[in-house]
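Suppose a classmate hands you a notebook page containing two proteins, each written out with its sequence and a corresponding row of structure tokens. How would you begin to make sense of it? This section walks through that situation. The first entry is reproduced here exactly as it would appear on such a page.
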Amino acid sequence: MKKCFQFLLLLISTSLFAVEQPNPVKLKSPDGNLEVSFYLKNGIPYYSLNRKNAVVIKESRLGLILTENQSLDKDFKVADIQESAFNETWKPVLGEVSTIQNHYKSVKISLEETSKLKRRLDVVFKVYNDGLGFRYEFPKQANLQFFVISRELTAFNLTGDHKAFWIPGDYDSNEYHYATSKISEVDAWKQPLISKGKLNKNIPDQYAVQTPLMLKTADGLYINIHEAALVNYPAMQLHVDRSNYSLSANLVPDALGNSAYLRAPGNTPWRTIIVSDKATDILASKMILNLNEPSKLANTSWIKPLKYMGVWWEMQIGKSNWNYTFDVDSLSSTGTLIPQGNHGANTANVKRYIDFASKNGIKGLLVEGWNTGWEEWTGNWKENNFDYVTPYPDFNVEEITEYAKQKGVEMIMHNETGGSATNYDRHLDTAFRFMNKYSYKSVKTGYVGQITPRGEHHDGQWMIEHFVRVAEKAAQYQVMVNMHESVRPTGLNRTYPNWIANEAGRGNEWNAFSDGNTPEHETILPFTRLMGGPMDYTPGIFKLRNYASNAPDRQMHTTLAKQLALYVTMYSPLQMAADLPENYEAHQDAFQFIKDVGVDWDDTKILEAEPGDYITIARKEKGKANWFVGAITDENSRQSVIPLNFLDKGRKYTAIVYKDGKDADWKTNPEAYTIEKRIVTSSTKLKLNLAKGGGAAISLIPVQ
């Protein structure tokens, strides 16, 4: 039952404040530990953030620069101050917990220019026990109706040379290795210098990183900086001043070099700062979700979690192809075009996957490369390459649909755009009607390559609006959507619960066509990419060496047991069993965990965590008494001691432990694992030895 208590604590209205505001407006979190301060200095707005009387963010600038040399950053007076408090509990449609508390104190500070224009700008702060969210709001007014933002001056001035986990500020991709360094050692270039491939050492302040940015202070404080509710606005990167340990907002520009086009009334996304002296609290925070609007969908009963396989990994490793090709020479000799090559999405191969998925209780199957257009999906031809309804000759839609229905398997649509968002926009209704006709309840979209319209970026305002349009259109047709090569999420899965997952990061697929992901990669992602929402990471690879036909020496940087643990540590209500059926057949005992593990949860316990080192998480399956645990480590082996005190007291459970073998090592012996069974209770402590690049997965099933 939803409980909502909202009341006005304080209302102060005045239009006679001086330009100078010597007494700052202060607001504390409900538990009193966090305090934000706002004040004007010579008409310029600033804020700071303290935790338990210690500074987290020093005095930092606020404001906006508009085009044509206009500004909304100075010559202000405070016209009004409104404080309030809010406390509710709400239920996510899909999530890590069954209920979420949304408890904060807020203050809206209305600023008015002292110039003759007298334009108004509101700055709104919401202070939670675990962090701060703030944004700019533009009230309806005569002198600010339609306007263009050139820059945002929001700064995050740090108290020292913190340890940072970062990727470079690329306008079009989040698919990078994470670097770990001090702020003073960040060497990521900022756009547009990134496209030149070379740093100019003579240009100051040229470094930029993506959000979410994870930081750790020398005295053990954890700070996470990101944004929430990114709608009708470009994504925010952070420019790094390495000498002053200062971060400032950088908005992804459009083809004309402008950042955002807005109307009043309106607002920016929330800038978020999550703070704790415990790394586990950072992962447990729901502040970003809370800063998003409630669901816009009246009926969400059709939105379901899903475990799936795919005719996908075999293309990634070179076993088959996305496109269907012909032997052109056969036309002259036989009078007909004869297919050649090895097209993966053929009817017989798809049926083989359906059979395996059905036999093993995997409810979904994704098929890539099923439709015409892959032979010209990038480059100058891409603007009209796909129509999203025409299959290749060897993919029989009707036959596959009927076969999947008989086997109890749900087909998942794939709509790759090749970056041509305009073409996809033109075909959205057609594509979703096709999905409805053939009972596709979910779709994976893709945006590989440079964006069309030309000059736009994946993370710019135009594409942000495109991603929202796709989610809204999908909801109209009751289709769930999983977006790849999209902007990193900002909690919009609360507002659009059918937007169930994103890629927006360096996923498991990079192990197929590159040097792969480092052993520490999955211990950083939950503190960075996953802070804004679920990730379709595609775990579950069992053949960890000699799997790529075009690179026989390539191998994964994890053990097999760690691949199992990722189903718990990398949250998503859409989880893929990513490997080939024959590789699962070779390890049916280990595959049992993938068959058993939940994908939607009633409760989550972050048992231990340190960014870049290790993570252990326990989750309770939605509507059941089963718990599942995942523990992972970086390139170092370690012993993990897992207390099971989250289990029901007085109840016995069968623990099935999938762990690294005695001699397991991500590099020398990655596929070594052992499986143990034992009876446990809430007083049990499990001691697990995690190999280098290793992990462990545990099923905890009540004894009947």
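The notebook's second entry, a different protein, reads as follows.
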Amino acid sequence: MSYQRDSLIRLRTLQVIVLLVVGVILGRLFYIQLIDDRYKDMADNNALRHVVQYPPRGEVRDRNGEFIVQSREAYDLMVIAREIPKEGFDTMRMCRVLGMEKEELIKQLTRAKTRSRVPMMITNQLSKEVKLRFDECNFRGFYTVYRTIRSYPRRIGGNLMGYVGEINADQLRKRPEYRAGDYIGISGLESAYEEVLRGKKGVKVNEIDAHGVIKGSFRDGMYDSLPIPGRSLVCTIDAELQELAEELMEGKVGSVVAIEPSTGEILLMVSSPTYDPNDLVGKNLRLNYNKLLKNPHRPLYNRAVSSHYPPGSTFKLVQGLIGLQEGVLKPSYRYPCNGGYTYAKGRKMKCHPHPSPLDLRSAVANSCNAYFCYVFRDIIENKKYENVKEGLDVWADYVRSFGFGRTLDSDFANETRGYVPTSEFYNKVYHNSWKAQTIISLSIGQGELGCTPLQMANLAAIIANRGYYYIPHIVRSVEGVDSLEQRFYEKQYTKVDAEHFEPIVEGMWQGVNVAGTSTRAAVAGLDICGKTGTAQNPHGKDHSTFLSFAPKDDPKIAISVYVENGGFGATIALPIASLLIEKYLTDTITRPYMIDQVKQMKIYYPNAKK
């Protein structure tokens, strides 16, 4: 019995081993045939060659139909290592034709030999001329694949348009619809509208012989698919205006944003310093990118939507509007200014010389600090609120309705929120012990307030529209699409009624056209309205800013200029805004001397050695 039992155990053991071996073999066959396409690729490439057909990326025109971004043809060089003749080929000749280092070519060929039956890329972005010279050499095992790369004829809008690059490993994990070697929008409009611009790849199946020579299309193209080109865009930018703004901002750090108030369309968006977008195309992309990355002035960083600045005196407009809506201010109210506002013993918010006392319109025109300190205190110390903390939170709600402290929900990538402080913030900072005088710097747009240049330009559009705005956006239309998302056509209202905007608008008009801090901005017949700002900077010279729109009635352009370390608002920011308004409304410049003056105002020198 013992012998029979041992025999049975051995038999069962043998059966299990056989079943395991068979299972492993079947599992391996299943994996090879249905899951791992490597062997299928190798088998297919014995007779067929699948060539990816890359679509041309969608092109971009400005609002007047001028090309800003185009696509031009280029070629990837592919190799199937097993098809290279055993006797080799003339590597030096290939290097000369390609303009490629021998070490790099050998490195890529060594990599290709690890999967010798599968097409592998040797180099990319070959020009048409190089491709034609290469074809004449008839290197066996090598072939080229057509694709397109970007071209920027105006050489403007580097950090606005963004750039396109080869997808990396991290992006591949997040975007399974892409493959290694594909291009993707990395930043700016190229990234924000990637799904529209990219198109859809096709494939061409060629039949090849044992020597790798193409015999023709497999089954007359039955399995081919054509690439679908990316859709073109018309963006809201005025290319000529953008170019002038970039010229005026050369040598300065900061931003200019202009909006069409009646639509929310962004007419120009400059972040300075900028760069020629053609520098991030082609073989020198990585080299040029590293140079830009090391530049201490950060030209790759789009200050227009990502930087947080104190708005300075331009924010007095918001204080006046909130005061009017809250009923603690009337346009006729006058407040004294004896060189500033004393808010504590021995402490004074200083102000520049001007007549005193002033009403609201004159306070806006002359940018009186003291006036808006009174207004701010009256808002947050309003008796209808339980305490100053509740008053501040009501104030903060008003401010957020103007688009501050949150994103504007634009169609632009990397838009940031800025910051509007609340009672909760100050309770933590001052351990619940603070009052209006503690935070009086908020009255003139200083303190903890932070906003983006896009938000400041949007404020100009709100005042131009007397109380509402359209969400700012960079694209006007998409090929094949009837309209943009509905949100771009809906009015976004502030919490201040339209009737309260008139004295503020009148004060801005007087400041430019009668008397005040903005008179240098005046252009006969254009009815420009403006407000200067000098934002205090604890790290150096004050920032120069100017907020403006024109004409006063039926406005066509709203603009904000912000120049870091530029000093008084009227010194640098104002003339830049005035020139751009004149150019947009009249298509001429009547003050060429002012262009020369602005260009000579350098905060830094782009070509200076660091």
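A careful reader of the second entry would note: The chain has two domains: 51-235, 239-286+303-476+488-600.
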